[in-house]
Specification:
Blueprint lengths: L6 E6 L5 E8 L3 E5 L10 H7 L4 E6 L15 H15 L3 E5 L1 H12 L5 E5 L14 H9 L3 H12 L9 H11 L2 H23 L6 H10 L1
Parallel strand pairs: 3-4, 3-5, 5-6
Antiparallel strand pairs: 1-2, 2-4
Helix pairs in contact: 2-3, 4-5, 5-7
């Protein structure tokens, strides 16, 4: 399958926002929801493999490509409306989501029984407040000052406090420069503002652990 086989399409979501998606392959319709800091094109190889037996529609989520902006009033409800609009347009009833995309899939399936099957890979979840947002203020400040690399490093450190969080920022910058493709690093920095409200939605949807379960986990862990 080549780029010539990929079609760029779009729908208008319930609030009037344009949502684009890539279509390729042939067979039963399948919807793919990318993770945070990703574009639809990042799932090209996955879509090509799946497209051998399926028609694959990969969503370009809000704030990416030709899709509309997230907007100041972004929330998971709007994201679910985006997905349902594409499901109606394509007839897709099977949906796959990666990371934050998995969270979107779960929330959408809860809202609409027309989604018959879902597949998730490392779905984003906040368990008993496990998603931390203490980094938000400093990252937003660095973004506003156009210090995109510093903001990305701050985000990495905050996301992995037990590993990268202990490394000095200058070392992480060097590692990123050494190990990451320039285009990938640029993409992550550009999309970083979109992941802030997404993490806020995860935090707001945290799943509490009952006291009895906490005791059990403490005993076995």
């Amino acid at each position: 399958m080549t780029a010539e086989n990929v079609q760029q399409q779009f729908v208008i979501s319930l609030d009037g926002t344009k949502i684009t998606y890539r279509t390729e392959g042939s067979g039963p319709a399948r919807l793919v929801i990318p993770r945070a800091l990703s574009l639809a094109s990042n799932f090209e190889r996955f879509s090509q493999e799946l497209g051998v037996h399926h028609t694959v529609h990969t969503v370009e989520r809000r704030g990416r490509g030709e899709s509309g902006a997230q907007g100041d009033d972004y929330n998971i409800e709007k994201k679910c409306q985006d997905i349902l609009a594409i499901c109606v347009a394509t007839g897709a009833k099977f949906v796959f989501g990666h990371s934050y995309g998995g969270f979107i899939v779960l929330e959408t399936a809860k809202r609409d029984p027309s989604i018959q099957k879902i597949a998730l890979y490392e779905p984003g979840m906040s368990i008993d407040g496990s998603i931390d947002l203490t980094w938000r203020e400093i990252v937003e400040k660095q973004i506003s000052e156009n210090r995109k690399l510093e903001a990305f490093v701050s985000f990495i450190k905050a996301s992995n406090p037990e590993t990268t969080g202990k490394a000095p920022s200058w070392l992480l910058k060097f590692i990123l420069w050494l190990t990451m493709k320039t285009d990938d690093l640029k993409q992550y920095q550009q999309l970083l503002p979109t992941t802030i409200p997404e993490h806020a939605e995860l935090r707001a949807s945290t799943i509490p652990i009952p006291p009895t379960a906490k005791s059990w986990l403490k005993f076995y862990c």
